[in-house]
Amino acid sequence: MAQSVIIVGAGMIGAATALQMAKAGWRVTVLAAGGADATSASFGWINASFYLSPDHHRLRAAGLAAWHRLQDVVATDVVWQGCLCWDMDAQGLAQTEAQLQALDYPVSRITSAELRQLEPHLLTTPDAALHFRSEGAAQSGHAAAALLRAAQRHGAQVIRNAVVSEVLLSPSPGVSTQWGKLMADQVILAAGTGTPVLARSIGVDIPLVHRPAYILRTAPVAPLLNHVLVTPVGEIRQEPDGSILMPVAPGHQADAAGELVETPDKAADAAMARLRGVLRLPDDLDWAEVTLAERPVPQDGLPVVGPVAEGVYVAVMHSGITLGPVMAELIAAELSQRRDNAAAATLAPYRPDRFA
Ligand SMILES: Cc1cc2nc3c(=O)[nH]c(=O)nc-3n(C[C@H](O)[C@H](O)[C@H](O)COP(=O)(O)OP(=O)(O)OC[C@H]3O[C@@H](n4cnc5c(N)ncnc54)[C@H](O)[C@@H]3O)c2cc1C
Fold first, then answer.
1. 111 and 148: one domain?
2. Which of 315, 324, 257, 237 is nearest to 45 (CA)?
3. CATH code at 128?
C-alpha cells in the first residue's frame, strides 16, 4: 500500500511538494488554515541573480530549470520575460556582472539606449543596466493553485480551513486539528511563517526573522512593461492582466526591516510617487490594492529543508517562488529514497539542524 503524507500548508511550497509527492506515488493530504499567506502576496520574480552564496545561486538556477519542467501545468501563470536591473552604482553593476559570469549565468550589460529600446516607457534611464535574459515571474497565487490542482489530478486530497495546532510523534507521525487528530507515515511542515510554532510543539527550533512587507498593485493598464525591472526605487513588473505590481520597499529581496513604520496607504502613496518618477503612466493611474504580508525569512536567509524528527520534515524559505518547484522535487526524491549524491549535496547547506 502507498505511504501516506500530511502536508501542512497550501502556499507555493506545500502545493509544489504535494504535486511531486503525489507523482512519486504517495497518498497526499494537504491541510491549509487559509487566511493571509506569503504566496498570494508575492512579487513572484523567479531569479538567480540575487543570491547569498555560490551554492545558493546554483540552487536558484536549478529553481528556474524546475519551473520549466512544470511549464505545461502553469503555462499561463509564468512568463519568462527577462529582467533589467540597475539598482546599484556602476561599480556594483560591473562586480555583479563579473560574479554572475563566473557562475555561468546568462547576464549582459546594456547601454542606456538599449534599455530605452527594450523599455520605451521609462522616463529616465541610467548609463548602464544588467540584462538577466533567463529570468521570469509567476502570478504566484495562481501558479500555486495550478500546482495543487495538478496534485489533485494525481490523487492528492486537500482539506481547507484546517488549523493544525500541534505535531504528533506517536503512535505515528500526525497532527492535531480543530476536528481531532490525523495520522500518516510522514508529515511535512510547509506552513510558511506558521512553521516555527508547529515545530516548537515537538521541541524543534526553526528561527525565522520578522519581515513584514507591503506590496501594491494598480488597476490594469495597457501593456507598458516588457521585463521585470529592478530599479533604485523598487522592483516593478506588469502582470498579464495589465496591473502593475511593486513591493513597497526598494530592494525587497534583501530588505531587512523588522517593522513597517508607515500605514499601508501612506506607504503605497509614496511608492506610487516613486513609480511615477521612473515610468510614463496614465495620469489617472493610482494604486488599487496594497497587501500586507509576513515573509517567511529564516534567520540566516537560507532555506530550511529536511527532517526534524522521525517522520516529520520541514520546508520553509524566502524566495519560495523561485525555489518551490526545485525544493519539491528534492523533497519528494529524498522522502521516496530516490535521493542521489547530487541531491544530497544540494540540500546539505539547508538542513534544519544547523540551528540546533
Ligand atoms: C511582498 C513579497 C514579495 C516576495 N517576492 C518574492 C519574489 O519576487 N520571488 C520569490 O522567489 N519569492 C518572493 N517572496 C517570497 C515567497 O513569496 C515566499 O517564500 C513563498 O510564498 C513562501 O511560500 P510558503 O508556501 O512557504 O508559505 P505561504 O505562502 O505563507 O503558505 C503557508 C501555508 O501554510 C498554511 N498554514 C500556516 N499555518 C498553518 C497551520 N497552523 N495549520 C494549517 N495550515 C497552516 C497557510 O494557510 C498557507 O496555506 C515574496 C514574499 C512577499 C511577502
1. no
2. 237
3. 3.30.9.10
